[in-house]
Specification:
The complex is a heterodimer. Helices cover 39% and strands 15% of the residues of chain A. By secondary structure, chain A is of the alpha/beta class. Chain A has two domains: 3-147 and 300-321, Rossmann fold (3-Layer(aba) Sandwich), CATH 3.40.50; 148-295, Rossmann fold (3-Layer(aba) Sandwich), CATH 3.40.50.1370. In chain A, the strands form three sheets. Chain A has a five-stranded parallel β-sheet. A four-stranded parallel β-sheet of chain A has the order 4-3-5-6. Residues 1-13 and 317-325 of chain A have low confidence and may be disordered. By secondary structure, chain B is of the alpha/beta class. Chain B has two domains: 3-55 and 376-430, Urease, subunit C, domain 1 (Roll), CATH 2.30.40; 58-365, TIM Barrel, CATH 3.20.20. Helices cover 30% and strands 23% of the residues of chain B. In chain B, β18 and β19 form a beta hairpin. In chain B, α2 packs parallel to α3 and α8 packs parallel to α10. Chain B is globular and about 65 Å long. The chains are: A alpha/beta, B alpha/beta. The interface between A and B is medium-sized, with 24 and 20 residues.
């Protein structure tokens, strides 16, 4: 992976051109993004204006799959830094005429944008794009592979609330098999020293989790006793039709974070969910509104984390001068 | 014109002995083999100095996709045959999953006719088991046998219905036709694009579990046992299948099996991130599977090496991983890889490797080939064990450049390919 050599950075001595997944980020890079995001959030709270790092720059949002929070969050992050955003909508694009992904990506790059954010329903699309264009490519979710900015904002949220990340116990609940958020977070949690336990229907857990250093547990109530963070994964309704689970009712009974269960969870335990939430299955509506739920905070933090990411990938000059951590 | 191969180390099965001999070829046949041929015996012959090289029976690849008719952008019979010659193969069996499917005598004859006109090597079309390879009605095997087929297969679209496979075995027995089975239970493999394991978990790609293969291997072995037909299992990829084949052979069931060079050499862990040139079916498996396959080949549980040469255009492969077609090319890298990765490091003996590419596939297809003897067709491959090279897809004669071995350093390969006494390849150059 090529990259630019500008920042006193970890690993191989340069910041990578793209953000394709948490797998490819060093711990120092993660810390760096979290620290920059913290400063942005502080500035925002104090009502200070941001340095227009993306002035005269255009970011292309290529969303081949529907999204609310991620797309708007990237847009707002670029906007906050003075950049412009072109939104690409598959419905009205040449994709409808059978244009391939690579052709689309080349075309958008040739139009003259400084970075590309890609969301796609198939794994590996941002890899494919990143190999084709010279500008930074940011993976905003590719199939069941990774969703790195989600993992970054989750780490940010955890660090903000708990003050640190290392040594915390996180319990991931649900459909790991189909979750790109889970995959990115497994990398992120491990790199930042969290202890990860997974609970979910065995039919929705991919092979090899234990080899990745994850503890598997069967009983949610047992697992809930000792955790600092509950990370709930979304359950798509179609999993029942596809035969992975017998019914949503049974799923909720065994794996749902219900009001009942909430009562038995420590006050200090934090509840997170990447959204979108469909209340009533993996989580009850009142739980999402409880003080322990940090779901809205996650969404809020996403903007600052993505600003930090833009800065890392595009804001070359500024790094050198004033913003070393 | 006659051809003299001088001072060659001759490999012959089953002895597998390497003896230094002169071979005189006349009229497309092997005319004489002797320790030393006198000058007067080979006057006016073209002399090839084969000193230090090995002359083997022409290599036979039982599993090739030539794509013609229907997908000539990926490969043609002409380009596929050239690739075969470049890789040292003198005979190839081509799978029927063309468009349309090779499921009738007319289609078989058409492929053979094009091959006769444009191909530089021998081509044996494999007929479909069922019409259109749809798994519903038997294809006209009897008529196709008259057209020249040596085996039947629904490669790429395994016969899902067990009773249909059972009927096909009964029917094929009348013609002593081996059934080549691409073993993959469709319900277990559904939607999968790579091995189900640690790497698929990491990449978030849907896996094809090894059980998808093994379940159907077991089914077909039991059907072969019941019918007494000859079952040939294509591209075995995992330890589970090996175990079943070993059991079948111990019971005297008529089962043979093949393995591809890529399954012998690569594991899923070596797959480059989302690189579709590593996407094939069956997929690359685990390290344990590769070890089991090597052992099975060495012990004869797996009989032969076949490439499953599956060319695709760059455009076809240059899409999202899940949308990319399965398959890698193999004809031009098979021998160098086998020599470099298996023979030179001592995993298998040279004689074992060559037998698995010559006499054994000939026996499976019932061809009068795979041995060097006087009077036989002069299909020969001269192997240079020491030539160092680098795999370069741009030099392939195949239209398909989809190889995971680009840039690999190799030692050894085909020096010359002779088909019916005619030099069709010399030092990498194919003569059409």
């Amino acid at each position: 992976m090529s990259g630019r050599n500008f920042f006193p950075s970890p690993g191989d001595g340069h910041v990578k051109k793209d953000l394709l997944g948490l797998k490819y980020l060093e711990k120092d890079e993660i810390n760096f993004i979290l620290e920059r995001a913290r400063l942005y959030k502080a500035a925002y709270k104090e009502g200070r204006s941001f340095n227009p790092l993306l002035k005269e720059m255009t970011v292309a949002n290529l969303f081949f799959e529907p999204s609310t929070r991620t797309r708007i969050s990237f847009e707002k992050a670029a906007f906050n830094l003075g950049g412009r955003v072109i939104n690409f909508d598959t419905g009205s694009s040449s994709i409808q005429k059978g244009e391939t992904l690579l052709d689309t990506v080349r075309t958008v790059a040739s139009l003259g944008v400084e970075a590309m954010v890609i969301r796609h329903s198939l794994a590996g699309t941002s890899h494919l794009a990143a190999g084709e264009v010279d500008i930074p490519v940011i993976n905003a979710g590719d199939g069941c592979h990774e969703h790195p900015t989600q993992a970054l904002l989750d780490l940010f949220t955890i660090k903000e609330i708990k003050g640190a990340t290392a040594g915390l116990k996180v319990l991931m609940v649900g459909d790991v098999l189909h979750s790109r958020v889970a995959r990115s977070n497994l990398w992120g949690f491990k790199k930042m020293g969290l202890e990860v336990t997974v609970v979910g229907p065995f039919s929705l857990l991919p092979p090899g989790l234990e080899e990745r250093g994850v503890t598997l547990m069967k009983d949610l109530d047992e697992a809930l006793k000792t955790v600092d963070i509950i990370y709930i994964l979304r359950l798509q309704q179609e999993r029942q039709q596809k035969g992975y689970i017998p019914s949503l009712k049974e799923y909720r009974h065994l794996f749902g974070i219900t009001e009942d269960r909430l009562k038995r969870i420590s006050e200090k335990t934090v509840i997170m969910h990447p959204g979108p939430v469909v209340p009533g299955v993996e989580i009850d509506y009142p739980v999402t509104r409880s003080t322990r739920s940090k779901i809205q905070e996650q969404v809020r933090n996403g903007v600052f984390v993505r600003m930090a990411l833009f800065e890392l990938l595009l804001g070359e000059e500024v790094w050198k001068n004033e913003l070393a951590p | 014109m006659s051809l003299l191969l001088k001072s060659a180390l001759v490999f012959n099965s089953p002895g597998g002995l390497l003896e230094k001999k002169d071979i005189l070829i006349k009229g497309g046949k092997i005319f004489k083999i002797a320790p030393v041929l006198e000058k007067k015996e080979h006057e006016n012959s073209q002399v090839i100095d084969a000193w230090g090289k090995i002359v083997a029976p022409g290599l036979i690849d039982l599993h090739v996709h030539l794509r013609q008719p229907g997908e000539e952008g990926k490969e043609t019979i002409k380009s596929g045959c050239a690739a075969a010659a470049a890789g040292g193969f003198t005979s190839i069996a081509c799978m029927p999953n063309t468009r349309p499917v090779t499921d009738s005598k007319m289609m078989v004859e058409r492929v053979k006719e094009i091959a006769r006109r444009e191909g530089v090597v021998n081509v044996y079309p494999v007929g479909a088991i069922t019409k259109g390879s749809l798994g519903e009605e038997l294809a006209e095997m009897g008529l196709m046998v008259e057209g020249g087929i040596k085996a039947v297969s629904d490669d790429g679209r395994p016969v899902a219905d067990a009773s249909m496979m059972g009927l096909a075995m009964e029917y094929a027995k009348m013609f002593n036709l081996p059934l080549i089975s691409h073993c993959e239970d469709p319900s277990l493999a559904l939607g999968g694009v790579m091995n189900q394991g640690l790497t698929s978990t990491r990449l978030g790609l849907r896996g094809i579990p090894d059980t998808a293969e093994a379940v159907m291997v077991a089914r077909d072995i039991i059907l072969a046992q019941a019918s007494g037909s000859h079952l040939h299992i294509a591209h075995v990829s995992c330890a589970r299948s090996v175990e079943l084949i070993e059991w079948a052979k111990s019971r005297g069931i008529k089962v043979t099996a093949e393995v591809t060079p890529h399954h012998l050499v690569l594991t899923e862990e070596e797959m480059e991130e989302f690189d579709a040139d590593y996407k094939m079916n069956p997929p690359l498996r685990s390290k344990e599977d590769v070890e089991a396959l090597r052992k099975a080949l060495k012990e004869g549980v797996i009989d032969i090496i076949a490439t499953d040469h599956a060319p695709h255009s760059r455009e076809d492969k240059g899409v999202e991983f899940e949308r990319a077609p399965f398959g890698v090319v193999g004809l031009e890298t098979a021998l160098p890889l086998i020599l470099t990765e298996l023979v030179h490091p001592g995993h298998i003996k040279l004689e074992e490797a060559l037998a698995s590419l010559t006499i054994k596939p000939a026996e499976i297809l019932g061809l009068d080939a795979g041995v060097i003897r006087e009077g036989a067709e002069a299909d020969l491959t001269i192997v240079d064990l020491d030539k160092e090279d680098k795999v370069d897809r741009e030099k392939f004669y195949s239209r398909g450049k989809n190889t995971p071995f680009q840039g690999w350093k190799v030692k050894g390969g085909a020096y010359m390919t002779i088909v019916k006494g005619k030099i069709v390849m010399r030092e990498g150059k194919v003569y059409f």
